[in-house]
TrEMBL record:
PANTHER family: ABC TRANSPORTER SUBSTRATE-BINDING PROTEIN, THIAMINE-BINDING PERIPLASMIC PROTEIN-RELATED. Keywords: Signal. This is ABC transporter substrate-binding protein. Gene3D superfamilies: Periplasmic binding protein-like II. It holds the Pfam family SBP_bac_6. Residues 1-22 form the signal peptide. InterPro entries: Ferric-bd (IPR026045).
Length: 321
């Protein structure tokens, strides 16, 4: 089986430029790393404002914020979990700002304290060079043909995977959802950790299908000619908006607002589209299926988050992970 290029998951600190400069704007961002590099470099070129970037997983970004509570360093945060923005807002840690460039961002992707940088969706990712047939829906992966060939991100470590479980609970009900998880586990599904650890075995050919992959990484690989298919089940999927927010502790509120404005500009949103995310602005062309083209499951995130620990415990029980 042909091994595809693995997705690199690593924390990185980028100097853009003047890393040590106290006057530089500091942005903490979840991946993709190349996107925040481009946005920061473009912003610096246009405004002359230096940008320091810490790029990692959402979990590591949020852990770093928590560890720095006594002496916050970040000015702007971009997460891959809408829930993280809601939590920070509830704690009173966000600066109020609504960018004039957010006019064409749909209402459900913006508030007075945070706005979507872009949007991803959850999908099946199938290695075309595998020996298993192309799946079309979530439940297909319980078939014996997929025995020991499926991976799934751990919803305890991936906000997007938790959102998918929440969506399945909404669409299918509790009994059917936990039975599906148990059947997948009985069929040998592996739950190795966060998103990259679920995707890489499929890209490398060790496994054949990801259940609940964050789509933009694989869409980019597919566009480069890799032998994978990104499949959005007709029964429905969920989206994962990526909130962008300014911390209330920032000493550079004007510069932070300029950065948010830039990311929501035509140039900034074109950069988002280049990485196969859906631009948050509805008037910017996407290079992939958009919200209007997908069958979406509406999730009551507040209700699901209130049951988060119970849901994760049921998932662990059902999958033995």
């Amino acid at each position: 089986m042909h091994a595809l290029k693995p997705f690199a998951l690593s924390a990185c600190l980028l100097a853009l430029p003047g890393l040590a400069s106290a006057s530089a704007l500091t942005v903490y961002s979840a991946g993709p790393g190349a996107l925040i590099e481009d946005l920061a470099a473009d912003f610096s070129e246009e405004t002359g404002i230096e940008v320091n970037v810490f790029q990692s997983t959402t979990g590591q970004v949020m852990a770093r914020l928590e560890s720095e509570q006594a002496n916050p360093l970040a000015d702007v945060v971009i997460s891959a979990s809408w829930d993280s923005a809601e939590s920070l807002h509830e704690e009173g840690l966000l600066h109020e700002y609504r960018s004039p460039n957010a006019e064409t961002v749909p209402d459900f992707l913006k508030t007075d304290h945070y706005v979507a940088q872009g949007v991803s969706a959850l999908a099946l990712v199938w290695n075309r060079n595998s020996d298993v047939p192309q799946p079309n829906d979530w439940s297909d992966l319980t078939d014996a043909a997929y025995h020991d060939q499926v991976t799934m991100p751990d919803p305890a470590q991936s906000g997007a995977a938790f959102e998918l479980i929440s969506g399945l609970l909404t669409a299918m009900g509790e009994d059917a959802t936990w039975q599906l998880m148990a059947d997948l586990a009985d069929n040998g599904m592996l739950v190795p950790g966060p998103n990259a650890r679920a995707l890489n075995p499929v890209l490398q050919g060790a496994k054949s299908v990801v259940f609940g992959a964050v789509d933009y990484i694989s869409l980019g690989q597919q566009a480069e000619g890799e032998a994978i298919e990104v499949i959005f089940p007709e029964s429905g999927t969920v989206i994962a908006p990526r909130p962008m927010m300014i911390l209330a502790s920032t000493a550079m509120p004007d510069e932070a607002e300029q950065f948010v404005d830039f990311v929501l500009s035509e140039q900034g949103q074109a950069r988002v589209a280049e990485r196969y995310l859906m631009p948050s602005r509805s008037d910017i062309e996407a290079l992939r299926p958009t919200i209007e083209e997908l069958t979406l499951i509406e999730v009551d995130s507040d209700a699901m988050n209130a049951q988060r620990e119970a849901i994760l415990e049921r998932f662990r029980e059902a999958t033995g992970s």
